[in-house]
Amino acid sequence: MKINDVDLINFLKKEISKKNISQKDISKRIDLSATKISLMFNLKRKMTAEEFILICYVCNIDFDKIKKELIPYEQLWWFLTKNLVSFWHTLIIAFIK
User: Fold this and answer.
1) Residues 60, 19 contacting (CB under 8 angstroms)
2) How many CB atoms lie within 10 A of CB 43?
3) Residues in contact with 4: Cβ distance below 8 Å, sequence separation at least 6, in sequence order
4) Helices and strands counted in the chain (H then E)
5) Which residues have C-beta within 8 Å of that of residue 75, sequence separation ≥ 6?
6) 54-80: per-residue pLDDT in tens?
7) Cα 26 to Cα 28: distance, rounded to the nearest angstrom
8) Do residues 22 and 38 touch, judged by C-beta distance below 8 A?
9) pTM beyond cutoff 0.85
10) What are the two backbone dihedrals, phi and then psi, of residue 13, each rounded to the nearest 5 degrees?
11) What single DSSP character describes residue 44?
């Protein structure tokens, strides 16, 4: 089963909305332009695994909730690990700033 981009983005938007976090806030916290965030949330730009992880982290979105509500575990694991080296690099840079 493939991750459905529409379902994933809708889930993220719903969770972010519940927490009253704006796209601009996310943009500042993960150092990605507000335009790119908007394009991702409007399905006009692909979201990378590292962007997905960082958005979940800064918005305090629990991966278990995503797994239970949206994505089979095996598919989530594949999605998160396909760019693992790049993710760790991004995460380290984010904490250094």
Assistant:
1) yes
2) 13
3) none
4) 7, 0
5) 1, 2, 3
6) 999 999 998 778 777 765 555 656 666
7) 5
8) no
9) no
10) -60, -40
11) S
